[in-house]
Amino acid sequence: TWPTEWQLHVALMFYADYMYTGNTELIEKYYEALKHKTLIKLRREDGLISSANATPEFMKKLGFKNPKTKLKDIVDWPPAQKDTGWKLATKEGERDGFVFKPINTVVNCFYYRNLEIMAEFARVLSRTNEAAEFEQLALQVKQTINEKMFDKTQGVYMDGEGTNHASLHSNMMALAFNLVPQNQIESVVAFMKSRGMACSVYGAQYLLEALYNANESDYALELMTATHDRSWYNMIEIGSTMTLEA
Prior knowledge:
Blueprint: H1 4-7, H2 10-21, H3 25-37, H4 56-62, H5 81-84, H6 105-124, H7 128-148, E1 150-151, E2 156-157, H8 168-176, H9 185-195, H10 201-213, H11 217-224, H12 232-237
Antiparallel strand pairs: 1-2
Helix pairs in contact: 2-3, 6-7, 6-8, 8-9, 8-10
């Protein structure tokens, strides 16, 4: 489907399966397709990718039959209430005011994690040279994100190239995927705490992973056990039998 990040979740799902089963058959069978799903062909010279670079031929190889289908960065869902009419969405939606740019910090954080996973998959399949290539690309992406997306003055990650807006999402994804240098973790966490639960149920998974990565277990537990309207408790209270989108 069309969200850029949904393509970038495929390798994460394969990795989860491998971690739980130790089975390498799927990795071997779909290795080449997985490489394409990382969107590696959309990278520019500094290593970062943009969904805007996807051609009809590229989309066809991803499995899209309609040549007019385009990738679109999603970051989180649903968007602002005025766009969706969803009464449960906040005025800003579930994106914390995220500013979309062709070079998107959230997308590139996912891309970085994909490169790490593909390096491991390559090692599993004894493709030593490819493993080294993926590792080198991952290092380049990490360095570029920290050089171009991190605002040293504010101590936070911007949403993308060409904006000075920082959202919870850009910072929690960088922290969840271990892109944040040790000496910057404190300022990134402080900013995240100032935003609260400014993400959806989908985004919350990465928010929690980021917080536990930073040894912020007490705050993470506070979020999980909260009883206000930005909580799992609220979903139960209104009678939901499964997780809501907002």
